[in-house]
């Protein structure tokens, strides 16, 4: 991954990931993941709420960018001289092609707009250019328009060279003539569909994740030990998981020292100050959650 897009994920906790823009073209971290073929980064950014179709200043979406680089790298590998095909650079490029295709598959399954384009080639055009059948099939299953013409006036089927490939493509088109888009996997990566997971209602914020208090500690080692728990729920308008609720326990459990304070009689200024800091701490939480 290029140094200019390296970032500590911990700094993203309070930030909506889709708004994080890098460089002159407004590149987001999800776009960087699609371009570079970084599955781990793509998973993290989608988990944090990255907008799947968030474009750069040139209106290029992560899916289109990833597929464009897939086409370029595939063409370079195909034209590589035989003596270079055994080099580490060649094999590194081949591995990158596999990773980019995996990230593109992930983005499609998260219901990216498969017909959205910046006026150039659509995702289906690009997948057909390299005859990547897994992506071609997936795009058609998710509603890609096979009749759309690119800037050169050609439909996606005309980008396939072999007659057998065109026949195979038309068979897939007939099979998916009236597709019902497959359900979206839950972006918490539980392995369940969204409708069977977070869309059903709030779920506890994972204790092994960084605490939403931005303390830098794990949630299980921070607020959760003080009975301040966060919950996540699927927020449809933003198409993202958001923290929606927190629960407070007994104030004496939030701050164990409070059980030792005596408020029955005269209260020292220091005890009042300690009480104030606890209340202020909770207030900061409430403001942040809004």
UniProtKB/TrEMBL annotation:
Record keyword Ribonucleoprotein present: no
Pfam families in the record: Ank
Keywords attached to this entry: ANK repeat, Repeat
Gene3D superfamilies given in the database record: Ankyrin repeat-containing domain (1.25.40.20)
Listed name of the protein: Ankyrin
């Amino acid at each position: 991954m290029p140094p200019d897009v390296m970032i500590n994920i911990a700094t993203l906790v309070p930030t909506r990931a889709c708004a994080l823009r890098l460089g002159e073209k407004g590149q987001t971290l999800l776009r960087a993941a699609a371009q570079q073929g970084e599955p781990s980064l793509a998973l993290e950014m989608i988990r944090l709420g990255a907008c799947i179709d968030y474009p750069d200043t040139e209106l290029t979406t992560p899916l289109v960018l990833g597929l464009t680089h897939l086409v370029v790298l595939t063409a370079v590998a195909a034209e590589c001289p035989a003596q270079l095909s055994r080099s580490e650079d060649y094999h590194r490029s081949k591995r990158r092609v596999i990773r980019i295709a995996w990230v593109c598959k992930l983005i499609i399954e998260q219901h990216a707009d498969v017909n959205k384009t910046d006026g150039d080639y659509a995702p289906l055009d690009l997948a057909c250019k390299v005859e990547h059948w897994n992506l071609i099939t997936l795009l058609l299953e998710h509603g890609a328009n096979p009749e759309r013409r690119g800037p050169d006036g050609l439909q996606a089927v005309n980008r396939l060279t072999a007659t057998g490939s065109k026949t195979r493509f038309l068979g897939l088109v007939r099979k998916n003539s009236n597709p019902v888009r497959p359900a979206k996997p839950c972006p918490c990566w539980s392995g369940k569909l969204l409708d069977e997971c977070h869309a059903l209602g709030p779920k506890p914020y994972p204790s092994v994740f960084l605490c939403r208090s931005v303390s830098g500690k794990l949630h299980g080692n921070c607020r959760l030990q003080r009975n301040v728990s966060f919950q996540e729920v699927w927020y449809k308008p933003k198409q993202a998981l958001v923290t929606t609720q927190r629960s407070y326990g007994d104030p004496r459990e939030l701050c164990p020292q409070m059980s030792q304070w005596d408020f029955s009689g005269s209260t020292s200024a220091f005890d009042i100050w300690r009480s104030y800091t606890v209340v202020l701490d909770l207030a900061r939480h409430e403001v942040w959650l809004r």
